[in-house]
Amino acid sequence: MARRLVKNGHSFYVASVPKVTEEHRLARRAQIVAAARTCVIEDGFHKTTMADVIRESGLSAGAVYGYFKSKEEIVGAIAEDALSTIDDLFDSILASEHPLTPLAALEATIEHVAKVAEAPGGDVTRVAVQAWAESLRNEAIKDVAKGKYCQLRDHFVVIARRAQADGTLDPDVNPEHVAQVMFGMVPGFVLQRLLIGDISPTTYTAGLRALLRP
């Protein structure tokens, strides 16, 4: 328990204050991010305000602003949470004694994106698409999106380099160019899934395999 000096009408005294644990802070942060995700999915990024997030979270304004100073910061947190699961996916891929080929790694990524989109708490890919549009007019959101997506593309660079090392990818090609194309396949899947709907990881990866067959 932490202690602080408190003054009443007659004197000062030392009062015990419950210590906020790291677990509690993380839970509060997750509560705010979940509330923001719900608001953006239901009402759109541009229409959602900090007041909406505060109301949806059930917390005080001071509590919410204690974690996030702006809507842009919350969008960054939503992206961070979503991409952290992809980081875990690539950690497992790269930790394998027999790493996946670029095509197999891309298939695993597409399947993972679909799984995350269907997880409880709302389809985070809807937030992603709205953030893309907002990036065209909001430099702060653009910086967040660029940073997170460059991080994902860097994972594909590592995959390409490992494929070159084990002989499954032409050693003369630029791995960054390969990563650019691999990354581009992910938003293509997301957009078709949201806007057209007649697509699944199975159909998408089947098309990729057919396209890349010698």
Number of helices: 9
> Overall 3D geometry?
elongated
Low-confidence runs: none
User: What's the number of structural domains?
Assistant: 2
Rg measurement, Å: 22 Å
CATH homologous superfamily (4th level) name of the largest domain: Tetracycline Repressor, domain 2
* Helix and strand composition category: mainly alpha
Description:
With 214 residues, the protein is mainly α. The protein has two domains: 22-78, Homeodomain-like (Arc Repressor Mutant, subunit A, Orthogonal Bundle); 81-212, Orthogonal Bundle (Tetracycline Repressor, domain 2). 69% of the residues lie in helices and 6% in strands. A two-stranded antiparallel sheet has the order 1-2. Strand 1 (2-7) and strand 2 (12-17) form a beta hairpin. Helix 1 packs across helix 4 (71-95) and helix 4 packs across helix 6 (124-135). The longest helix has 27 residues, at 139-165. The chain is elongated, with a radius of gyration of 22 Å. The chain starts with a strand and ends with a helix.
Give me a quick take on this structure:
The chain has 214 residues and is mainly alpha-helical. The chain is built from nine helices and two strands.
Blueprint of the fold:
Elements: E1 2-7, E2 12-17, H1 22-43, H2 50-57, H3 61-65, H4 71-95, H5 102-117, H6 124-135, H7 139-165, H8 175-195, H9 201-212
Antiparallel strand pairs: 1-2
Helix pairs in contact: 1-2, 1-4, 4-5, 4-6, 4-7, 5-8, 5-9, 6-7, 7-8
